[in-house]
Amino acid sequence: MPIEWNEQYAVGDARTDSQHRNLFTYVNRLEQLIEEGRKRGLDRQAVENLFIFLDAYVNTHFAYEELCMTLRACPAARKNKEAHDKFLAFWNEFNRQHNPNSVGLVALEELHAALAGWLTQHICRIDVALRKN
Ligand SMILES: [Fe+2]
Predict the structure, then answer these.
(1) Which residue, 19, 6, 121, is CA-closest to 68?
(2) What does the pLDDT look like over 114-132, one tens digit per residue?
(3) Distance from the CA of 40 to the center of ligand 1, in angstroms?
(4) How far is the CA of 119 from the centre of ligand 1 (A)?
(5) What is the whole-number distance in angstroms between the Cα of residue 23 and the centre of ligand 1?
């Protein structure tokens, strides 16, 4: 079931919110890609596009958000950086084990679960600390 962005995820910084919304779009696209992959086989070009997006996302969005928290002396800055580093380690390991041309449905399901957990847990619990600063 797609995960919809709503105000509960808003952090009060327009660029961060827009980047988060973009991530929601890609996570839902991954879900769709998996569903279609089960019926007709995986669309490798779409998988590659997703990998490219995620790679750029974790590098640019995390850095931007960390900068926002540091500049605003947000109390959650350290916790946020630690969570980002943990996610980066997961993503790097995922990339070491899989590539867009050979990754299977089970691994993509794991990736989807990790990303969906990130959306529903990390953004609501840590990123929203930006609101108060
Ligand atoms: Fe974050």
Answers:
(1) 19
(2) 999 999 899 999 999 999 7
(3) 35
(4) 10
(5) 12
Please tell me the distance between residue 118's alpha carbon and the centre of ligand 1 in angstroms: 9
List the alpha helices (DSSP H) in the chain: 14-40, 44-71, 77-97, 105-117, 124-125
When pLDDT is cut at 50, 70 and 90, the band that residue 1 belongs to is confident
Task: Reply yes or no on whether the pLDDT at 12 is more than 90.
Answer: no
| Residue 7 half-sphere exposure toward CB, CA atoms < 13 A | 0
CA 46/CA 28 separation, integer angstroms: 13
Q: Which of 75, 87, 85, 78 is nearest to 129 (CA)?
A: 75
**pLDDT tens-place string over residues 16-39:** 999 999 999 999 999 999 999 999
All domains of the chain in start order, with CATH = 7-132 (1.20.120.50)
- What is the 69 CA–ligand 1 centroid distance (Å)? 9
Ligand 1 geometric centre to CA of 37 (Å): 30
